[in-house]
Specification:
alpha/beta, Rossmann fold, seven-stranded mixed beta sheet, 36% helix
């Protein structure tokens, strides 16, 4: 990296993707980027993915080398302080997606998203929702039209068993963040599953 960057990293409650997120935080930290974990209430309170909430928090803080932001009050200074050069929400659940698309900023993660919008910084979203082609389809489609919003390319992970489910290609997460920092959307947006490119 040519200059020291600060990335806010919002994590919402799709626990099956937490290991990939921990690895990604460590990679970006290893490139000299300051990574600030920002954990939603579900991440702080609900066990899953083989660990309890305290264990996941510890893993993310160790990977990022930073204390996690947990509350709206802790996240609020990110906006006026212009702390972030970019914001990542990975994984992004359908609930947080729906609130974001309607301007509802009632959690630590959503308050950090508001800071990115306020300061016109790139916002990278990694969808992980069983409802992506259901009622939530209108929400990610709405955000596609918003300036400075970039999506990790995604696919239908189980089109027969869960036909409305969408999942980000986490193998394309780093590339999406890099392109977003340059003001570009990684294309194509709609992909086959991670086993194929």
């Amino acid at each position: 990296m040519d200059k020291k960057l600060t990335l806010g990293w919002g994590v919402t409650g799709a626990h099956g993707f937490f290991s990939a997120v921990v690895d990604a935080m460590a990679r970006w930290k290893g490139q000299g980027v300051r990574v600030i974990p920002i954990l939603s209430p579900a991440v702080q309170r609900v066990a899953g993915g083989g660990k309890n909430p305290a264990e996941w928090r510890r893993c993310m803080e160790e990977a990022a080398g930073e204390k996690a932001i947990l509350t709206v009050a802790e996240a609020e200074p990110l906006g006026p302080g212009e702390v972030l050069d970019g914001m990542v929400v990975a994984p992004l659940t359908g609930t947080t997606l729906a609130k974001m698309a309607h301007g509802i900023y009632d959690t630590s993660v959503l308050t950090a998203v508001k800071a990115a919008f306020r300061n016109q910084k790139p916002l990278v979203l990694a969808l992980c929702t069983n409802d992506g082609l259901g009622l939530n389809a209108v929400n990610w489609a709405r955000l596609l039209t918003v300036r400075h919003v970039y999506f990790v390319p995604f696919f239908q992970d189980r089109p027969l068993g869960k036909p409305a489910s969408l999942q980000a290609r986490f193998d394309l997460l780093d590339g999406t963040i890099q392109r977003a920092l340059e003001g570009e959307q990684l294309q194509p947006l709609l992909r086959e599953g991670a086993a194929q490119d």
